[in-house]
Design brief:
It is built from eight helices and no strands. Helix 1 crosses helix 3. The longest helix is centred in the C-terminal third of the chain and has 46 residues. The chain has one domain. With about 220 residues, the protein is mainly α. The N terminus is likely disordered.
Length: about 220
């Protein structure tokens, strides 16, 4: 009985924190403050929002009208397609946290991740019905689809900016500065990763050639 009550409370907390994402989309300043400072967000809900974002992104390839998306399935790697969202998100989270930590940012790494996922809420919220709607519009109405699709991305970007400002307790100017700096940090991370994997590949190639030379001489 006690275990059942605990599970029920856990599910209630999960759905409450997931529902709170809707509040964050319409009241970003209060919402993202309460998300972390009042602990109204959960990693489970953040992971769910990220999963829904990835799912909708994949489903759009299959169910969006050919008027808007032309898909060549032979050239698509679903895992790379998903990584095109997950990898930049991970770099942004690490880059933003690393920079803000050096300049008195209050947000922890987990909070930056959680707030970033919550800020993505407009994407599945808008893109799913828009995906269905795309199959009922004509070419003449395509501009309406494109505008709404773009607005969902702008909305998510604005929420991301608001989220970072609230969890780090930065003013508007300082927050915008660090958002831009975070983009540069992402480029630095990419450069370091490319350099790292380049050195690894050169090292592997060296030992492979060395092994071949030894085998040839034997």
């Amino acid at each position: 009985m006690i275990a059942a009550l605990k599970n029920k409370k856990t599910y209630q907390d999960y759905f409450k924190s997931l529902k709170f994402a809707l509040y964050c989309t319409t009241h970003p300043l209060d919402g993202f403050w309460d998300l972390t400072h009042e602990k109204r967000g959960t990693y489970a809900a953040a992971n769910t929002i990220l999963f829904l974002t990835l799912l909708i992104r994949v489903l759009k390839l299959r169910y969006t009208s050919f008027i808007f998306i032309t898909v060549y399935w032979e050239g698509i790697n679903i895992f790379l397609y998903i990584a095109s969202v997950v990898f930049p998100l991970a770099m942004f989270v690490v880059g933003n946290w690393g920079l803000t930590t050096l300049f008195d940012g209050k947000g922890r790494l987990g909070q930056v991740y959680m707030a970033s996922c919550y800020a993505m809420t407009p994407y599945p919220l808008v893109q799913f019905p828009l995906m269905i709607f795309s199959n009922f519009v004509t070419v003449d109405e395509a501009e309406f689809y494109m505008v709404i699709s773009a607005l969902s991305l702008v909305w998510a970007a604005l929420l991301m900016i608001a989220a970072m400002g609230q969890i780090h307790e930065f003013g508007a100017g300082k927050n915008l500065l660090f958002m831009v700096a975070s983009l540069f940090a992402m480029l630095v991370i990419v450069f370091i990763l490319l350099l790292f994997f380049g050195m690894i590949s050169q090292g592997i190639a060296y030992f492979v050639s060395l092994a071949k030379e030894i085998m040839f001489r034997l």
